[in-house]
Amino acid sequence: MIKDAVVQAVGQVISLRDAKLIDADLRGADLRCANLNGADLRDANLRGADLRGANLSGADLSGANLREAYLNGADLSGADLSGADLIGAKLIDAKLIDANLNGADLRDANLSGADLRGADLRGADLIGSKLIDAKLIDAHLSGANLKSADPDGASLGGAKLNGVWLDKDGTV
User: Fold this and answer.
1) Which residue among 31, 62, 86, 108 is buried most deeply as judged by most CB within 10 Å?
2) What is the pTM of this model?
3) What is the pLDDT of residues 21-30, one digit of tens each?
4) 3-state SS track over the chain
5) Is there a contact between 19 and 40 (Cβ–Cβ < 8 Å)?
6) Which residues of the chain have pLDDT under 70?
7) Are residues 144 and 159 in contact, defined by beta-carbon separation less than 8 angstroms?
8) Number of structural domains, the chain?
9) Which domain holds residue 113?
């Protein structure tokens, strides 16, 4: 089983660059600082996985289950996370530059300090998410749901906010 093989490699730098892991079961796997650059993880189950500091740049995580995953400090630049389940995920200081998060479920996710410059968040669900000090410069947020989100100190210069769902009083 892939999950067991990865877990046994803890303490070593794991390289799964360009790996084909479509629909893989990696629940709870310890992939800290792993190199998953360009990996195909479509529809993979990474629920609760520890991906802190991992390189997932250019990876395809569309439809993946990343619920409650730890992605603090991970590099997801240019990654495809469209339709991914990121409910309760920890993305503190994660790099999501130009990432595709179209339709992603980020309810209650912690994106504090995350770099989302140029990210596509159209139709994303960010209810209750923490966007404290996040960089959303030039991000596409059209149709995103930001109800009860906490954007304290977030940078929104150049962000596209057409049709963004806000709280009743017009605040994010």
Assistant:
1) 86
2) 0.88
3) 999 999 999 9
4) CHHHHHHHCCCCCCECCCCECCCCECCCCECCCCECCCCECCCCECCCCECCCCECCCCECCCCECCCCECCCCECCCCECCCCECCCCECCCCECCCCECCCCECCCCECCCCECCCCECCCCECCCCECCCCECCCCECCCCECCCCECCCCECCCCECCCCECCCCCCC
5) yes
6) 1-12, 166-172
7) no
8) 1
9) 1-172
